[in-house]
Amino acid sequence: MRTITPAAVITWLASSLLAVASVQASEPINETREIAANGTVEIENVRGSIRVEASERSDVAITGTLGEGVKGLRITGDGQHLSIEVEYPDSGGGWFGGWGGSKAESSDLRVQLPATVSIDVSSVSAHVEITGSAGQHSEINSVSGRVDYAGTANELEIETVSGAIDFTGAASNASVQSVSGGIDIQAAIAERLVTESVSGDVKLGAQQPLQRLQVSTVSGDLQLSAQTAAGARFDIESLSGDVQLQLVSGTSARLRAETFSGNLDSDVGTVEREEYGPGAHLDAQLLDGKGDIRVESFSGGIRLRSK
User: Fold this and answer.
1) Mean pLDDT, residues 19-41
2) Residue 12's pLDDT is what?
3) Is 261 within 8 Å of 299 (Cβ atoms)?
4) Any idea which of 56-60, 74-78, 96-100, 117-121 has the lowest mean pLDDT?
5) 35 burial class (0-12, 13-18, 19+ CB within 10 angstroms)?
6) How high is the mean pLDDT of the chain?
7) I want to staple 197 with a disulfide (CB 3.0 to 4.6 A). Which of 66, 75, 220, 230 is the partner?
8) Based on the number of CB atoms within 10 Å of its own CB, is 233 exposed (0-12), middle (13-18) or buried (19 or more)?
9) For the residues 172-192, what does the mean pLDDT come to?
10) d(CA 171, CA 188)
């Protein structure tokens, strides 16, 4: 039979009290602010979560919880430009020490705002979720936190360092960039999409014909599926990552592909191998050739598939 010592009881009680104190120290948030229909809301939270939801309300509702050790919630600005910031203690100690202090707990923000309002969201490791936002401009910046964007915007910018990006919404023009985080885009982009990655993989499934597509990577693999709009231009580049492009039925373009040392395989056109050296290239016309598709790789392989 196991003996329960007084020291063990004291240790258990102390840990239980600390857990209760931590829960009690979490501060609930319940704030509202006025905002113009064409205004901008800026949101910043170092870690935890940020959830932004478009709604039918005419003001901004801010709810959630502030973690233990957080200095507070700072709301500044006016109806045209509103700023919402979770203030963490500055513990010093360089970059990571200055990002919120090691003793402060994570905070969770939920912001509900009018669908016409633009947003500017910043985080370090917080999980960012955007749903339904339909403002003129949406900008999201994160270091290691995941970004899930299911909103809509005329102009969209998403940037992370190592955080994964999942874009399932819609935009007229979108720029999606990551250093090492994976990028998955299953979205409707009306005009232009620019996607850049260093080592993260990029997966694209465009939900409507695209006018302009620019995709580049250093070592990440590209898996792309998109149809050209009339007169569209696609530029796809890779250094060492593999490229697979699915040519959707109805794509009209002049297709040019070239690799310096990687393999080139295509369902359309004729692949020509270099007489001396490992390179290969292809030049083909799809339907009436009204668009332009260019695919280039240095050492990564290229696979062109057609439905």
Assistant:
1) 79
2) 45
3) yes
4) 96-100
5) buried
6) 88
7) 220
8) middle
9) 96
10) 7
What residues form DSSP beta bridges with 278?
A: none
pLDDT per position as a tens digit, 91-146:
444 444 445 555 789 999 999 999 999 999 999 999 999 999 888 999 999 999 99
Q: Report the alpha-carbon distance of residue 50 to residue 136 in Å, rounded.
A: 20
CA angle 59, 63, 64 (to 5 degrees): 160
Per-residue three-class SS string for 214-244: EEEECCCCEEEEECEEEEEEEEEEECCCCEE
The label of the residue with tokens 């709009």 reads 229
SS (H, E, C) the chain: CCCCCHHHHHHHHHHHHHHHHHHHHCEEEEEEEECCCCCEEEEEECCEEEEEEEECCCEEEEEEEECCCCCEEEEEECCCEEEEEEECCCCCCHHHHHCCCCCCCCEEEEEEEECCCEEEEEECCCEEEEECCCCCEEEEEECCCCEEEECEEEEEEEEECCCCEEECCEEEEEEEEECCCCEEECCEEEEEEEEEECCCCEEEECCCCEEEEEEEECCCCEEEEECEEEEEEEEEEECCCCEEEEECCCCCEEEEEEECCCCEEECCCCCEECCCCCCEEEEEEECCCCCEEEEEECCCCEEEEEC
**Is 11 a residue whose pLDDT tops 80?**
no
Q: What percent of the chain has pLDDT over 90?
A: 77
Q: In which band, very low, low, confident or very high, does the pLDDT at 7 lie, cut at 50, 70 and 90?
A: low
Q: Is the pTM of this model over 0.85?
A: yes
Residue with tokens 């669908």: 115
What would the pLDDT profile of 268-293 be if each residue is shown by its tens digit? 999 998 777 778 999 999 999 889 99
In angstroms, what is the C-alpha Rg of the chain? 25
| Residues recorded for the chain | 307
How many beta carbons lie within 10 A of that of residue 86, not counting itself?
A: 28
The total of other beta-carbon atoms located within 10 Å of residue 248's CB is: 15
